Amino acid sequence: MSAHKEVLYGLYDDEEIMLDAIRVANKQHLDIMDVFTPFPVHGLDPLLGLEESRLHIAGFVYGAIGTLTAFGVMTWIFTRDWPVIFGGKPYWSVPAFIPITFELTVLFASIGMVVSFYTVCGLAPGVVNPVLDDRITDDKFCIAFQTNGLSSSEIDKYSSFLKSTGASEVSSKVI
Amino acid sequence: MSAVVSKIREPLITGGKSYHDITEDLCSPTESVPNATWIFAFVASVGLLTVGLFCIFWTIWFGIGAWNLNRTIGWGWDITNFVWWIGIGHAGTLISAILLLFRQKWRTGVNRAAEAMTIFAVMCAGLFPALHTGRPWFDFFMFPYPNSRGPLWVNFNSPLLWDLFAISTYFTVSLLFWYTGLVPDFATVRDRATGLRKKIYNFLSFGWTGSAKHWQRWEYLSLVLAGLATPLVLSVHTIVSFDFATSVIPGWHTTIFPPYFVAGAVFSGFAMVLTLMIMTRKILSLEDYITIEHIESMNKVILCTGSIVGVAYLTELFVAWYSGYVYEQFAFYNRAAGIYWWSYFGMMACNVISPQIFWIKKFRRNIFITFFMSIFINIGMWFERFVIIATTLARDYLPSSWSYYYPTWVEMGIYIGTFGLFFVLFLLFTRVAPVVAIAEVKSILKTGGDQYVGKNATHAHHHAASHDHGHDSHDDHHAH
After folding, report:
1. What is the pTM of this model?
2. Does A33 touch chain B (CB under 8 A)?
3. What is the tens place of the pLDDT at every residue in B100-125?
4. Which residue of B has its CA nearest to A107?
5. DSSP classification of residue B281
6. In angstroms, rounded to a whole number, what is the distance separating the alpha carbons of residues B349 and A80?
7. Given an 8 Å threshold on Cβ–Cβ distance, is A41 in contact with B215?
8. A6-52+135-174 has which fold?
């Protein structure tokens, strides 16, 4: 995010009104920049055309790395690096490796997914993201349009859309 | 405005709240000066923690000879307390993960506090094995790292090492899950704050904005973490039970241990959640968010897991008799009628018999009975671990080695200290973070709250009489 963004946004009082507004926007082919809500609103993703997140695929890969790491390291240690006989069992006692292999699978998958989540969302301790309105994390549902380089008549079209679909407040901000 | 209610389910959020009311109610404890009850509780907890710290210092200074363990009874209060605290932690993960997968909406009222309880309980639990090593400053030897001793590795075939991995993983995953849920709520607190508080909460909220794509990923992450935490939580107490079950001690060497330990863990954990939530909802006035409906749901889980535990106790007795194995038979005779008969009695009375009153709906919905039962159950579950550990060890194969064990003041002090640690952390948590998950409660307001708008919705009675306050408290709830 390099250059400043000029943003026109409307605040709605209820998620149902906002969802209806997005349906109207889709019919009018208006290009919504983003939607901000105080909680996950179900049915929003398909309306905005958001692709399914691939976070779970990443989680599978991290988990697989954990499985291989745990099993590989224990195998190497007990068959190559320092073989020790415990209780008359074979060096490579696979059933006894299962609990730790499982735990590290879960650990790698969880840490990997959480780190990926914050990275792709651009969230981290100390990050200050611009907030359009303080009430978005409280009880307002916000539809935002980017208006850089748009003519005033186009901006009017967006703002009349917001007003006509039930936005309780319409404002603009440079972020 | 007349609210809309569900015909088939009781609301999980009462009081006709709007989204803004939810924000106000749940953020206010982080924004106000603590009341006298909180301050008193905090000072008392710090006092208990001080006792614990002193006894930990004593243990480290003089060694674990300050405890009453001996050659026969190598595990006493320390491992009893360890298993007890770990078990308590399990309810948090069950509520936040398993109930999320089952789409149980009542979890939203209690999941945040229950997860916090999990994390603090695991911290308390970890203290005991860490001290039991005798030289806690060498505890890092337990982790497999390339070392200058060969490198000589740890024994990956040992259940005690599996336990180390299980508990470290459990703690880490619970913390990540809990914090990810907290991030949007910290943003809510941030956007209400000014000055330094705003800076602190912005730091804690990682710059959360509430963008649709972020919410989508957040929900995916929560769901997959729940999917991972579910087998994880079952594995943790399974592995704790392996500490016993893989040995050759009669009374420990049983295949029933994993399911029996997991059920017992959930049982004691829910009891602790109830103890905490009944106090919290009162002190922080959260009765509209943690309703009788929540308490009843938890009591049902307690009844179910308590009965599983009861069946497990009886199965153990039956199998001991049926095995025809004299040592096994003696072990169980000794538990019920031996030197520690009183702890077996306490276990049976608190865990098996008393929870059966929850078959009656009136008792499930009674706060006082629930509160006392929750404490009973935790006492009973402590006795269960003591029975398994101390009673079994006190009467082993060689009668010449038979011994008796009772704790020293140092061991008691450390146990008391973990209560201090637990409550200090929990009390701080109630002032710093929203105790009820704000975003998640808002997301169920219209499907599970008293403003239900789904298929079975019905308009609440909205007649003139309902405006007369005090006329009918039930109407008052719905008719504003």
Report:
1. 0.90
2. no
3. 888 888 888 888 999 999 999 999 99
4. B169
5. H
6. 53
7. yes
8. Alpha-Beta Plaits (3.30.70)
